[in-house]
Write a structure and sequence with these properties.
Number of strands: 7
Largest sheet: 5 strands, mixed
Shape: globular
Distance between the termini: 24 Å
Helix content: 40-55%
Radius of gyration: 22 Å
Number of helices: 13
Strand content: 5-15%
């Protein structure tokens, strides 16, 4: 049996994509002039204790710079303190302890730069919390003190934008996280693509409530099930018996689901495959800041490839 040669691709918009890659490192992309005007927290509610000095926008801006340039908290304070001076503004910089404390309560929204209904692809990946690296594991084996967090991510596979995410412990199954993910999506969902790990009743119910089309491969010997939420699954089972499992995947466009794996690869390559924070809520904020920054990078330009 001969191995099939790997298909080769070329990029048709290399000039625009190359310019976008350069713009990702620009400070003016991440720190706009409008941020300086809203740097101080003038709308904070009156409460006991010391009044908050920095707005949520200022803290989000600082944490975004930290993730984009892969800085520790103290270096982030140094970078943020230099930005107002470069812009000719006399503004204080938040202390690194302030950044750490505010990250535990910060609400970060994922920006969306496209319009229309969502065509979602969902999957999960692991992010290191602490533990030895791959080289040490390869030489001496793994130790017991290794911990991960599990990132569940929904992207719009047409625009490559991250739409929803959640973080769980490493032992939480994918099918347990999907209903909560979809519950946080407010826009209209046209379809959802997922692998066989989501072939469960709770997942189909959550997709049916959103009025979306489920593109999930049933198990090899799956049978038709009763219930309105299983309409798309039953159609996949019957069509799979006629044209085969691979034939159904091509007809349904299931292979577009791999784009969420590509998004996770970009997330780890651009930022890191390791979390810096040690407390749960700060870890969630760290992931949301990364995904928000990745959406900003995606909006600049994406490579448009074609098969050679």
């Amino acid at each position: 049996m001969t191995n099939k040669p790997k298909r080769r691709y070329r990029i048709r918009n290399w000039r625009d994509y190359n310019s976008a890659l350069v713009r990702r490192g620009s400070l003016t992309l991440w720190v706009e002039q409008g941020v300086m005007k809203k740097w101080r927290d003038s709308a904070a509610p009156i409460r006991r204790g010391r009044r908050r000095l920095y707005s949520d926008l200022a803290i989000t801006c600082a944490l975004t710079l930290r993730e984009v340039y892969r800085l520790p908290l103290r270096s982030t304070q140094g970078l943020v303190s230099s930005v107002p001076r470069l812009l000719g503004a006399e503004l204080p910089a938040p202390h690194y302890s302030t950044l750490s404390r505010r990250a535990a309560t910060l609400e970060v929204e994922l920006p969306r730069f496209s319009k229309g209904s969502l065509h979602l692809a969902v999957d999960s990946t692991g992010l290191k919390l602490y533990g030895e690296g791959q080289w040490k594991v390869r030489l001496h084996g793994k130790e017991k003190r290794r911990t991960w967090r599990k990132l569940h991510l929904c992207i719009d596979h047409r625009t490559h934008e991250a739409v929803a995410l959640s973080m769980t412990d490493k032992d939480v199954l994918d099918r347990r996280a999907l209903p909560g993910l979809l519950g946080g999506v407010e826009d209209e969902v046209a379809e959802l693509l997922g692998d066989g790990a989501y072939d469960f009743q709770d997942c189909y119910k959550a997709i049916h409530v959103k009025g979306a089309r489920a593109v999930i491969p049933p198990q090899q010997r799956a049978r038709v099930r009763s219930g309105s939420e299983f309409g798309d699954r039953n159609a996949a089972v019957l069509r799979g018996r006629e044209v085969g499992r691979d034939g159904w995947k091509k007809e349904a466009g299931y292979h577009r689901r791999s784009l969420v794996e590509t998004a996770m690869m970009r997330l780890k390559a651009v930022f890191s495959d390791r979390l810096k924070a040690r407390e749960w809520k700060r870890q969630e904020t760290e992931l949301r800041v990364r995904c928000a920054a990745l959406n900003k990078m995606t909006s600049l330009a994406m490579p448009q490839s074609y098969a050679v």
